[in-house]
Amino acid sequence: MKSGSNLLFVAGVILVLALVVVGYFFILGPTASAPIAEPTVAAGTVGGVGQVRLARAEGAVEIRLGTGEWLAAHAGANVGPDTEVRTGVGTAALSYGDDLDIELSVDSEVRLTKLENDLARFEVQQGHVIADVKPGSGKVVQLGAAHSDAVAETRDGRLHLLTDGEGSVQAAVTRGRASVSSEGTTVEIPAGYQTAILPGKAPQTPMALPGSLLLKIKWPATKSTKKRRQLVVGNTNPFSRVRIGDSVVTADEAGRFRAIVELAEGQNQISARVVDVVGRVESSTSPPIVLDTKPPKHAITTDPDMWKRKSP
Questions:
Q1: What is the pTM of this model?
Q2: Could you tell me which residues come within 8 angstroms of residue 198 by beta carbon, excluding any fewer than 6 positions away?
Q3: How open is the CA angle 149-60-104, to the nearest 5 degrees?
Q4: Range of the domain at 284
Q5: Alpha carbon 104 to chain centroid distance?
Q6: Are 70 and 63 in contact (CB under 8 A)?
Q7: What is the pLDDT of residue 44?
Q8: Which of residues 208, 240, 270 is at a domain's end?
């Protein structure tokens, strides 16, 4: 009888302990926490800010980050802050969503310096760039220029900027409006007008865009020469960019330009291509010029009988 009571007592203790353990986990114990949602960023964005992309790359187009190595660029590449894109004999276009586009002409280079939800700022290192902002989009684009404090800005326009990379800048608007600031002075540019900013100077009073692009070249007069280096001079619209052979020069305030071209042995034709502030292009080709640096051939004529001895 006593043995059966002991067994009942032990079973009761075990049951009580089991109930305590179960109660701890279901009543007093820590409850499972809901999973913490990780912050998500939509595809094509960085840190919640939309991504600039290389929408088009035709011909010689390269890209690099910071001071890294220049690499061949392909459409679809991401362009983040401190990334540069440049063209040689080629063109490119960047896009920031559906509301802002940046176009690069031949021999141009641009760097993205700042990117926010409603603002994109680029510095044009050299050449010709067009910024196009969709009206009503709320986007703002700013274009600076290397070796200049000039900044052009538009919220609804098609803004053109041309620079030689050494401080001379020209800006124009073909749709909407833009402002250009330099040396503490700001001017407003309506559609169809342009302004120029010389190194260390305030923007000039906006003037109407010329109706056409001039290109007049004085080619070397000679058809054949022994001089490898040839001077080419000409006139075009002020501050326009001119590629002559492998050289790229910028016309001065009066539209004058000059370049030294190196000829190759044999027949040459020098090509010239000019682009103005709104992207108009004119071309010209020189008449054939022959470079002949080979020494002249000297023939010595002798009498066949000169070595024969004369009979006494």
A1: 0.76
A2: 167, 168, 204, 253
A3: 35
A4: 215-291
A5: 6
A6: yes
A7: 41
A8: 208
Whether 264 is covered by a domain: the verdict is: yes
Same domain, yes or no, for 197 and 235? no
Note the pLDDT of residue 296.
Answer: 73
Mean pLDDT split into 10-residue runs, the chain, 312 residues: 53 56 48 36 46 97 96 96 96 96 96 96 97 96 97 97 95 98 98 96 96 96 93 96 92 95 96 95 96 78 62 56
Tell me the helix, strand and coil percentages in the chain, rounded to 5.
10, 50, 45
Rg of the Cα trace of the chain? 36
Query: What residues have CB less than 8 Å from 228, skipping those under 6 apart?
Result: 262, 263, 291, 293
Residue that terminates a domain, selected from 208, 235, 260: 208
CATH number of the structural domain spanning residue 115? 2.60.120.1440
Task: Return the structure tokens found at 102.
Answer: 């940046």
Rounded Cα distance between 128 and 130, Å, is 7
Residue 18 has a pLDDT of: 58
Q: 118, 133 in Cβ contact below 8 A?
A: no
Does a structural domain hold residue 259?
yes
